[in-house]
Amino acid sequence: MAFKKIEWKENLSYEDWLKERNKINGIGESHCRVGASSISVLTGSNKWKSKRRLFLELAGLYSKGFANHRTIQGQQFEASVAELFEYYNTDDEVYFNNFTTKQKERFLNKAEFFGINDEYPNFSASLDYVPFYDCSSPFTGEIYAPNTPIEIKYIDEFVYKSWDDVIPMHYMEQVQVQMAVTGTELAVFVPMTNDGVLHPVEIERNQSLIDYLSYEAGVFAKEVTKAKILKAKIDLTEDKVEKHDLEVELEELIPFDDVEDIVDLMNETKEEGEEFKEVPTGSEEDGWMEEYQECTEKEKDLKSRKTELRSRLMASSEGFAGVESPDYKCTARGNNHESKGSYFRVNSKNK
User: Fold this and answer.
1) Exposed / middle / buried, residue 181 (Cβ in 10 Å: 0-12, 13-18, 19+)
2) Which partner for 40 in 46, 97, 306, 348 could form a disulfide, CB atoms 3.0-4.6 Å apart?
3) Which pLDDT band, with edges at 50, 70 and 90, does 102 fall under?
4) Does the domain at residues 3-211 carry the CATH identifier 3.90.320.10?
5) Can you list the alpha helix ranges (DSSP code H) found in 270-347?
6) Among residues 186, 179, 154, which one has the least CA distance to residue 83?
7) Domain locations along the chain
């Protein structure tokens, strides 16, 4: 196993940092790597970014910077959350006293490097923090291994309460890729909710999950590489017919998925004309429009039925945490739930 650090240059601007990251992930290069924070796009556990957008980015076909109030807030509070974890103790009284007296129990370093590993050629990782010197676990007292990923998150309290587990799947996949790249057996996930409460947990390496993620990244990387080759051929040819055929082949290679971000992506890349494109009855586009209209009508009926079913399940759960059968599990918490407040969800046990 060969973990390699690619150190950031001093006083690196964001633009230069982005160029370095893009180079490592293979944009404009022959290779392709998927970053730890993007791996959940491939599995579908990421509900905010489409696979199509990631594909276009890594193939060097289209890219647009992404930021919103939440990402800005997360970056702003990252250093503060990390510092609070340096004071953290599982005993609140000790924790509060540590902070008051400025007595830190551990020290962290900002991870100013990119990580790659030749055992996982289609992964890359950019960590938040790593241990400094003898950095101890607040849970076991054991010393963390060098390069143990310490992932910092600043989130809304209602988001935290909606999680089924201590770490949702899209973050679980992120830290597993980080552990794969760094070769570590443990990662520390440190979310802080906007009520000021830290919720740190230690996540153990899951090799089966890492192998699955590595496989998905490898399949995706092969398709991205095909797209790069097609794009190079399109740029080189002067034959209009050949160029058109290559463009059609390239478009067929770019994935579609059901993440809502894909609508934003199409709006960003769509060229608008004044006239409507005319298609005949029975055409593919005509069928899409008919099906969309049918889905709209079904959606109205389904929304009403879902509301009714939710009410019935909530009523049936009176005095219980929910309803469970051999095939399904319904979590139905009311507002008076002592730990996480109101929450409703139905899961299939067969998935």
Assistant:
1) buried
2) 46
3) very high
4) yes
5) 284-316
6) 154
7) 3-211, 284-348
Is the backbone of residue 247 left (phi > 0), alpha (psi -120 to 50) or beta?
alpha
Q: Note the pLDDT tens digit of each residue in 234-280.
A: 999 999 999 999 999 999 999 998 888 888 888 888 777 778 889 99
Q: Over 60: is that where the pLDDT of 136 sits?
A: yes
Residue 2 to residues 28, 148, 178, 238, 298: CA-CA distances in angstroms? 24, 15, 14, 44, 53
Q: Where are the beta strands (DSSP E) in 27-163?
A: 34-35, 108-110, 113-117, 123-124, 129-131, 150-155
At 27 the pLDDT is: 95
Both tokens assigned to 280:
């005949």
The CA distance from 107 to 202, in Å, is 17
**Could you identify the residue written with the tokens 């924070």?**
37
Token code pair at residue 153: 């998150």
Greatest extent of the chain over all pairs of C-alpha atoms, in Å: 76
Angle between helices 169-182 and 207-236 (to 10 degrees): 90
Q: pTM, whole model, 2 decimals?
A: 0.83
The residue with tokens 């890349």 is 269
